[in-house]
C-alpha cells in the first residue's frame, strides 16, 4: 500500500484526484499507476483501470487470475465492475468513499446477482493516510 | 441504432459477444465500435467504453458534453458509470440485460446518490433485433 500511496501523491502533484493503485501477482508488482483522467483526457483512466489494463497487456489475457489489487480509495462502480471482469482475487483498499464508492456504497456491485466474480475485499488498509491525501487535495482546491 | 447493430454483428463475426455502440454529437457519428475484450486482451473493452474513449480522444476532453450514446444492450455497471463520468446527455439502448445490466438491473447506477450525472435513458430501441443477435450467438457457443 506504500507504493499505492506514492502513486496517489504523484497524482496530486499532477493536479489529478490523488488515488493510486498497484497490481500484484505472486508477490511481484505487475503494474502501478495513479489517476490520470485529466492528463489522458479519458474519463475511464482511474488508477485501478490503468493497472488492470496494463497487467492484462503484460499477461496477454483479459483475465488476471491470481492477481491482487491494492488501491488507496474504495473503487467506484466502474472500477468495482472491471475488477470483477478481470477476475481479481483480492481487493485491498484504503479510505471509504461515500460520495462515489461502488463497493460498500451506491450500487454495492459485489452484492448484486449481476456480478459474476466477487473478489475477497479488505477495506481500511492505511485508511487514515489515504483519506488525508484526499482531504488535503480538495481543501487546496477550495482555496 | 442500425450502425450499432452492424458493429454488434461484426463483433460476433470476430467471436466477441455481439454488442455494438455509436457515439453521436450534433447529428454526426464521432465513434463506433463493437465489443473487443478478447481481441484487445482488455476486460474493459466493451463497445460503450471504446466509443467513449475514442470520442474523448477526438474532442480532447474527458467530458463529452452534448453527446448521445446508442448501444445494442443495456450497459453493465462499468459502462453505466463511465457514461456518467463522460457526461453523456442521452443513452439509447436495445435489449435489457438481466444477467449483467447496471441500469435497470443490479446496482441501478443512475438511481444511486453516488452517481453525479444521470443521462436521459431510452431503453428498448430495436430491442428484438439486438436480443436476437445475442441469443443466436450464445446458442451457437453451446453447440
From TrEMBL, chains A, B:
GO terms for biological process: tRNA wobble adenosine to inosine editing. It catalyses: adenosine(34) in tRNA + H2O + H(+) = inosine(34) in tRNA + NH4(+). The active site is at residue 48. Zn(2+) binds at residues 46, 76, 79. It comes from the Bacteria. GO terms for molecular function: tRNA-specific adenosine-34 deaminase activity; zinc ion binding. This is tRNA-specific adenosine deaminase. Its EC number is 3.5.4.33. Catalyzes the deamination of adenosine to inosine at the wobble position 34 of tRNA(Arg2). Its cofactor is Zn(2+). The gene is tadA.
Amino acid at each position: 500500500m506504500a507504493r499505492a500511496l506514492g502513486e496517489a501523491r504523484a497524482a496530486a502533484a499532477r493536479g489529478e484526484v490523488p488515488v493510486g493503485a498497484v497490481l500484484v501477482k505472486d508477490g511481484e508488482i505487475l503494474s502501478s499507476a495513479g489517476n490520470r483522467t485529466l492528463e489522458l483526457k479519458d474519463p475511464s483512466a482511474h488508477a485501478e483501470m490503468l493497472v488492470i489494463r496494463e497487467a492484462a497487456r503484460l499477461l496477454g489475457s483479459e483475465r488476471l487470475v491470481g492477481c491482487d489489487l491494492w488501491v488507496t480509495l474504495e473503487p467506484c462502480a466502474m472500477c468495482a465492475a472491471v475488477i470483477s471482469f478481470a477476475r481479481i482475487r483480492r481487493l485491498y483498499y484504503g479510505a471509504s468513499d461515500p460520495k462515489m464508492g461502488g463497493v460498500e456504497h451506491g450500487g454495492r456491485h459485489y452484492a448484486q446477482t449481476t456480478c459474476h466474480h466477487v473478489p475477497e475485499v479488505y477495506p481500511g488498509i492505511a485508511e487514515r493516510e489515504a483519506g488525508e491525501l484526499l482531504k488535503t487535495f480538495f481543501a487546496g482546491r477550495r482555496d
